[in-house]
Amino acid sequence: MIEEKKSLNFIEQIIEEDLANGLPKEKLRFRFPPEPNGYLHIGHAASICLNFGLGLKYNAPVNLRFDDTNPAKEEQEYVDSIKQDVQWLGFEWDKELYSSDYFQQLFDWTIELIKEGKAYVDNQSSEEMAQQKGTPTEVGTNSPNRDRSVEENLDLFMKMKNGEFEEGSHVLRAKIDMEHVNMHMRDPIMYRILKKHHHRTGNDWCIYPMYDWTHGESDYLEQISHSICTLEFKSHRDLYDWYVDQVYDPSLLRPKQREFARRNLSYTVMSKRKLLQLVEEGIVNGWDDPRMPTISGLRRRGYTPNSIRKFSETAGISKRDNVTDVALLEHCIKDDLNKTAPRVMAVLNPVKVVITNYPEGKDEILTAENNQEDENAGFRDVPFSREIYIEKEDFREEANKKFFRLKLGKEVRLKNAYIIKAETCIKDENGEVIEIHCTYDEDSLSGSGTEASKRKVKGTLHWVSIKHAVPAKVNVYDRLFTDEAPDGHKDKDFKEFINPNSLQVINAFVEPSLKEAAILDRFQFQRMGYFCVDTESTADSLVFNRTVPLRDSWAKMGE
């Protein structure tokens, strides 16, 4: 059998071309450069999987470098969460680095640029500078401060560094070309004054380099061969190259920036600013709320590292912006958990069933298969007794031929147990069924080998013995937004599309084996969906989160 060769994505094609043109393979080095101003989300997972995946493919080191140039928004909490997420996804970085590691080197280079007449201090207002910038179709005009002398610029820049000016009063700009077709090249800002405490450098600096000045130079210092960014940085590539050109030593490797489209997902938002709004306004319960698209939220909801890596691989990378259907992500976790998650029984909307001909006071231990998809998953004990819970929607007094669950006068099989027949039911004053009386066929125990056990009945129900049932809180999560593109409406706030039914809290009953479940253990509640033990669950107070229902909308779309 000939093994199918996987086609290369366009980033891999670029790398292969560079290797063919003489780049030594040992010079390959990649990086993942998050800004620690929020928790990582499923879009960042695409970049993580791409960069670290390239490292694995080419046996090349990958740096984890934090772009910590804005102390107003960055926190150590975010640094810690990012490291946890990358490790949880199964990746290891070569070096843990920070843009702040290079603050002194960047400053020293900046002094040289000022001396070469390639940078100047501007004390105009941001509105004045924006007006002079021009438009994509109209050239910009020079700042009146553009031709300051080297000595004056050095003096003003040192005063900026020494904290002698207020925030927003002065900036340092690169002197490039105010008539350049690319607006990013029209004398971009290199430094601004920020009198804020930095999570690593403390109060050592009150001027901070801009992302564009920091990014390429950090890549150069780390000798990154391929600096892979999202598509919005494509227009910044000219500036990236210009900055690197100012410090480039031909004896060293020159980094190359290339771009791919960021991952957009339907029924969610990917802006960290908007996700922070959801957190700060209490619309969700923190960054790791299972309704959030954050990696920590997906982890708490029950997603596996393998499912997220598979999703990133299947969705692929593109040169053009597009939206990936969230149903693909759900398909990936269902496919993974179908192979790995133990099957257990839980009743979310219970109604009492009394098996009238089953001996009172009798208990028996039945054997249940943990996962028919995994021959090594083994079996477990499940207690059975005269009174059980089933799902309320699994019973009707009368129903048509297409209803294969329990109805009066008809039989169903209880999973891993007996065939029962509904005889009568009891209702409350509102006409709601509160108790169903059934009889059972004593010889019909599943797996017993008797003729009765081999009888075919169309319906099979899950159940829980009332005497042994363990109460549990179950969080049934739905999509956080009702609209496919909640932030795609210019005239509406994205929060207008918040789904009021994104969380339903249910008091359920589960089989006793789940008392031993550990935090983040994942299970299939038979016929109900996949569920995960929540981080706030305890032995005395079980809490489960629904990861995803059993119905696979992506597979149906595929058909």
From TrEMBL:
UniProt short sequence motif 'KMSKS' region, positions renumbered to this chain: 269-273
Pfam families, per database record: tRNA-synt_1c, tRNA-synt_1c_C, tRNA-synt_1c_C2
GO molecular function: ATP binding; glutamine-tRNA ligase activity
GO cellular component: cytosol
Superkingdom of source: Bacteria
Annotated InterPro entries: aa-tRNA-synth_I_CS, Gln-tRNA-synth, Gln/Glu-tRNA_Ligase, Gln_tRNA_ligase_bac, Glu/Gln-tRNA-synth_Ib_cat-dom, Glu/Gln-tRNA-synth_Ib_codon-bd, Rbsml_bL25/Gln-tRNA_synth_N, Ribosomal_bL25/Gln-tRNA_synth
PROSITE patterns: AA_TRNA_LIGASE_I
Predominant subcellular localization, coarse grouping: cytoplasm
Keywords: Aminoacyl-tRNA synthetase, ATP-binding, Cytoplasm, Ligase, Nucleotide-binding, Protein biosynthesis
Positions that bind L-glutamine: D67, Y211
Catalytic activity: tRNA(Gln) + L-glutamine + ATP = L-glutaminyl-tRNA(Gln) + AMP + diphosphate
Sequence motif 'HIGH' region, residues: 34-44
Cross-referenced Gene3D superfamilies: HUPs, Ribosomal Protein L25, Chain P
Binding site for ATP: E35, P36, N37, T230, M270, S271, K272
Chain ranges of the Glutamyl/glutaminyl-tRNA synthetase class Ib catalytic domain: 27-338
Keyword Cell cycle on entry: no
Domain tRNA synthetases class I (E and Q) anti-codon binding stretches: 460-534
Chain intervals with Polar residues compositional bias: 124-144
Record domain Glutamyl/glutaminyl-tRNA synthetase class Ib anti-codon binding: where: 341-441
Subcellular location: Cytoplasm
Enzyme class, first EC level, given as a word: ligase
Quaternary structure and interacting proteins, as annotated: Monomer.
Family note: Belongs to the class-I aminoacyl-tRNA synthetase family.
Family matches, as PANTHER family: GLUTAMATE--TRNA LIGASE, GLUTAMINE-TRNA LIGASE
Annotated protein name in UniProt: Glutamine--tRNA ligase
Gene: glnS
